[in-house]
C-alpha cells in the first residue's frame, strides 16, 4: 500500500469509528436532530405569526435554521476531539505506524454525516410546515455544496476548539458561540431591521452571506455579492482552521 | 549477533529545571520479559513514553529493535505496541469492534482481521462478552481488551505500563498468564515487586530517574544478603544482643525481635538456639525469613518510601 493509500485507509477507519460514536451517543444525536426541528417549529409557529402574519416566514427562516443546526452538529466535534485527547486512546494511535491526525479527519467526516442527516430532516419537517422552495436541481446542488463547505469549515474550527480546550467542558463552550451567532445575522430577521452596531456585526460575520446565498438559491431572492462572500468566508475559515488544527495537533501531542 | 530489543544509553528527560530521567542505561534482550520496577514518580512512564515514540528525550539515545526512536519513529512504531497506564480502549465500541478497528489500522485483510480478533478474544477469555460495549466492562475486562488490542499487530516488543495497577487479584492473574504466554519481548513497568518477580527475566530498579540496581530477581535478592532467622523473644532484646554479638543483623526492641544471618540449615539454626539457651535467653518463636524484592527495594531506594506493593 502506498503512503497515500494508507492515509486514506486510516482516515476511513477513523471516520467509521467516529460515525459509530455518533450513532451510539444517542442523547447527543437526538439533541442535534431534535433541537433544530423544535427551533424550526418554534420560529414558524410561535414567532412567525408576529413577524409575518401572511405566513411567509417559514420560507424566510428555513435557511437560517439549517445553518443553526449545522453549527450545532459541528460543535459537538470539539467535544469528541477533546475526549480523544484526554483519554488514553490517542497515545495508542500515536504509538502505531498510522497517520494519527486521521483521528481528526474521522471526526470531521462524522460531523458531515451527522449534519447531512439533520439537514435532511429539517428540510423534510420544513416542507410539512409549509416551506416551498423554488429551486431547480442545480440550485439544490449548489446549496448542498455551500452547506458542505460551511460544515467542513465549522467542523475544523470546532476541531481547533477541541484541541485548545483543556477540559471537555471547555470544548463544549464552543457550542454556545455557534448557537448564538446566527441570531446576530440575517438568519432570522433582515439585517436592515437591526440597530447600526448590530447590523455592522451581522454584515461582518459569515452567517449572513451564507444565509443570503442559501436563501437566494432555494427561494430565488437576490444573492448579489453575498455568493462570493459566502464562499470566501467558508474557504478562508476552512483553510485557516485546518492549518491551525494541524499545528495544534502537533503541539498538543508532542508530549 | 542479535540486536537487543531495547537499548537506552544515558537517557535523560527534563522539563525546565525538573529532571525526570537522569541518565538511564537499559538493555533488554530480544524475547525476554523485562521489568522496570520503581515507586510512583520514579520516571517509569516517562521511559516507556520515550521508547514508544510519544515523547522526545532531552538527552541520550534510545533504540528499539535497533532503530532510534527519534530518528526513525516510523520503524519503531511498526514493531511495537503500547498498553498504557489508563486503558486505551474505545468505550463506545464493543470489544470485538475495538479489535477489528485495530486490524484495519494495521491494514490486515478482512478475513485476517476477523480471524485475529476471534483468536485474541479467545486468548483473553472475552469471547462471551465480545459484542458488549466496553463502557459496561469492569476494570479488569477493560485491561484485557486493551491488551488484546495491543496484540492485534503482532508486535515484536510489547510495552506494558503498569499493566495490573488497580486490578483485582483474579484479573491480575489473568493478565500475568497472558503476558507469560506471549513469547515476544515484553517491557513492563510495575510498582509491584511480586509482579516483577513473577514475570520478569531481568529487573531494573528505577528511583528518582536513575537505575539503582539491575539483574535477575535472584541476583537482586542476593545483594540484600542470605536468609535470615527472626527470633521473637520472651524478654527484652538486650541479653540476646549480648549473646549473639556481631551476628545480629537487625533488632526491634518494641517487638522483641532479633534477626540473625543464617545459611538456612538445621545445624546452623540449632547452634543459634543453643547459644541463646546457654545464655539464658528465652525464645518464643522462630521464623525463617528469605529476602524478598521488598527488601531489595527498600534497601536500594532509601527505604523512606513505602512501595505500594508492601501494603498488600
TrEMBL record, chain A:
<keyword id="KW-0472">Membrane</keyword>
<feature type="transmembrane region" description="Helical">
    <location>
        <begin position="140"/>
        <end position="164"/>
    </location>
</feature>
<dbReference type="InterPro" id="IPR013525">
    <property type="entry name" value="ABC2_TM"/>
</dbReference>
<dbReference type="GO" id="GO:0140359">
    <property type="term" value="F:ABC-type transporter activity"/>
</dbReference>
<keyword id="KW-0046">Antibiotic resistance</keyword>
<feature type="transmembrane region" description="Helical">
    <location>
        <begin position="29"/>
        <end position="48"/>
    </location>
</feature>
<dbReference type="InterPro" id="IPR047817">
    <property type="entry name" value="ABC2_TM_bact-type"/>
</dbReference>
<feature type="transmembrane region" description="Helical">
    <location>
        <begin position="60"/>
        <end position="81"/>
    </location>
</feature>
<dbReference type="Pfam" id="PF01061">
    <property type="entry name" value="ABC2_membrane"/>
</dbReference>
<dbReference type="GO" id="GO:0046677">
    <property type="term" value="P:response to antibiotic"/>
</dbReference>
<keyword id="KW-1133">Transmembrane helix</keyword>
<dbReference type="InterPro" id="IPR000412">
    <property type="entry name" value="ABC_2_transport"/>
</dbReference>
<feature type="transmembrane region" description="Helical">
    <location>
        <begin position="102"/>
        <end position="128"/>
    </location>
</feature>
<keyword id="KW-1003">Cell membrane</keyword>
<keyword id="KW-0813">Transport</keyword>
<keyword id="KW-0812">Transmembrane</keyword>
<feature type="domain" description="ABC transmembrane type-2">
    <location>
        <begin position="27"/>
        <end position="252"/>
    </location>
</feature>
<dbReference type="GO" id="GO:0043190">
    <property type="term" value="C:ATP-binding cassette (ABC) transporter complex"/>
</dbReference>
<dbReference type="InterPro" id="IPR051784">
    <property type="entry name" value="Nod_factor_ABC_transporter"/>
</dbReference>
<feature type="transmembrane region" description="Helical">
    <location>
        <begin position="171"/>
        <end position="189"/>
    </location>
</feature>
<protein>
    <recommendedName>
        <fullName>Transport permease protein</fullName>
    </recommendedName>
</protein>
<comment type="similarity">
    <text>Belongs to the ABC-2 integral membrane protein family.</text>
</comment>
<feature type="transmembrane region" description="Helical">
    <location>
        <begin position="230"/>
        <end position="249"/>
    </location>
</feature>
Amino acid at each position: 500500500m502506498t503512503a497515500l493509500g494508507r492515509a486514506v485507509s486510516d482516515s476511513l477507519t477513523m471516520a467509521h469509528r467516529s460515525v459509530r460514536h455518533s450513532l451510539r451517543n444517542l442523547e447527543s444525536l437526538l439533541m442535534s436532530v431534535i433541537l433544530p426541528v423544535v427551533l424550526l417549529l418554534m420560529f414558524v409557529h410561535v414567532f412567525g405569526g408576529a413577524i409575518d402574519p401572511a405566513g411567509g416566514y417559514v420560507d424566510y427562516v428555513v435557511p437560517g435554521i439549517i445553518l443553526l443546526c449545522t453549527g450545532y452538529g459541528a460543535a459537538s466535534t470539539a467535544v469528541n476531539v477533546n475526549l480523544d485527547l484526554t483519554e488514553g486512546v490517542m497515545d495508542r494511535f500515536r504509538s502505531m505506524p498510522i497517520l494519527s491526525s486521521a483521528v481528526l479527519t474521522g471526526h470531521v467526516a462524522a460531523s458531515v454525516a451527522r449534519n447531512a442527516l439533520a439537514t435532511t430532516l429539517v428540510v423534510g419537517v420544513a416542507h410539512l410546515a409549509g416551506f416551498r422552495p423554488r429551486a431547480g436541481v442545480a440550485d439544490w446542488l449548489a446549496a448542498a455544496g455551500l452547506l458542505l463547505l460551511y460544515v467542513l469549515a465549522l467542523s475544523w474550527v470546532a476541531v481547533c476548539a477541541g484541541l485548545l480546550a483543556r477540559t471537555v467542558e471547555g470544548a463544549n463552550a464552543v457550542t454556545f458561540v455557534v448557537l448564538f451567532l446566527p441570531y446576530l445575522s440575517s438568519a432570522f430577521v433582515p439585517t436592515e431591521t437591526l440597530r447600526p452596531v448590530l447590523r455592522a456585526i451581522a454584515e461582518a460575520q459569515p452567517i449572513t452571506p451564507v444565509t443570503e446565498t442559501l436563501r437566494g438559491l432555494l427561494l430565488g431572492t437576490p444573492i448579489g455579492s453575498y455568493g462570493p462572500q459566502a464562499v470566501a468566508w467558508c474557504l478562508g475559515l476552512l483553510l485557516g482552521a485546518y492549518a491551525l488544527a494541524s499545528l495544534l495537533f502537533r503541539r498538543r501531542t508532542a508530549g | 549477533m542479535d540486536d537487543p530489543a531495547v537499548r537506552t544509553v544515558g537517557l535523560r528527560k527534563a522539563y525546565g529545571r525538573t529532571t525526570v530521567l537522569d541518565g538511564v542505561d537499559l538493555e533488554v534482550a530480544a524475547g525476554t520479559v523485562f521489568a522496570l520496577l520503581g515507586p510512583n514518580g520514579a520516571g517509569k512512564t516517562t521511559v516507556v513514553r520515550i521508547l514508544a515514540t510519544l515523547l522526545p528525550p532531552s538527552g541520550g539515545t534510545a533504540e528499539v529493535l535497533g532503530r532510534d526512536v527519534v530518528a526513525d519513529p516510523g520503524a519503531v512504531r511498526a514493531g511495537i505496541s503500547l498498553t498504557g497506564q489508563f486503558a486505551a480502549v474505545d468505550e463506545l465500541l464493543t470489544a470485538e469492534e475495538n479489535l477489528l478497528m485495530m486490524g484495519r489500522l494495521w491494514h490486515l485483510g478482512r478475513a485476517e482481521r476477523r480471524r485475529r480478533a476471534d483468536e485474541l478474544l479467545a486468548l483473553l477469555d472475552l469471547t462471551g462478552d465480545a459484542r458488549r460495549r466496553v463502557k459496561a466492562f469492569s476494570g479488569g475486562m477493560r485491561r484485557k481488551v486493551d491488551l488484546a488490542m495491543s496484540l492485534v499487530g503482532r508486535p515484536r516488543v510489547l510495552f506494558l505500563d503498569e499493566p495490573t495497577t488497580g486490578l483485582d487479584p483474579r484479573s491480575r492473574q489473568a493478565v500475568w498468564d497472558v503476558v507469560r504466554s506471549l513469547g515476544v519481548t515484553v517491557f513492563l513497568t510495575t510498582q509491584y515487586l511480586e509482579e516483577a518477580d513473577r514475570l520478569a527475566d531481568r529487573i531494573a530498579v528505577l528511583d528518582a530517574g536513575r537505575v539503582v540496581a539491575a539483574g535477575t530477581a535472584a541476583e537482586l535478592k542476593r545483594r540484600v544478603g542470605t536468609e535470615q532467622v527472626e527470633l521473637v523473644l520472651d524478654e527484652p532484646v538486650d541479653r540476646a544482643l549480648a549473646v549473639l554479638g556481631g551476628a545480629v543483623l537487625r533488632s526491634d526492641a518494641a517487638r522483641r525481635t532479633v534477626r540473625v544471618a543464617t545459611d538456612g540449615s538445621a545445624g546452623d539454626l540449632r547452634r543459634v538456639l543453643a547459644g541463646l539457651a546457654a545464655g539464658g535467653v528465652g525464645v518464643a518463636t522462630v521464623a525463617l525469613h528469605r529476602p524478598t524484592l521488598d527488601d531489595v527495594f527498600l534497601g536500594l531506594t532509601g527505604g523512606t518510601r513505602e512501595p505500594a506493593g508492601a501494603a498488600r
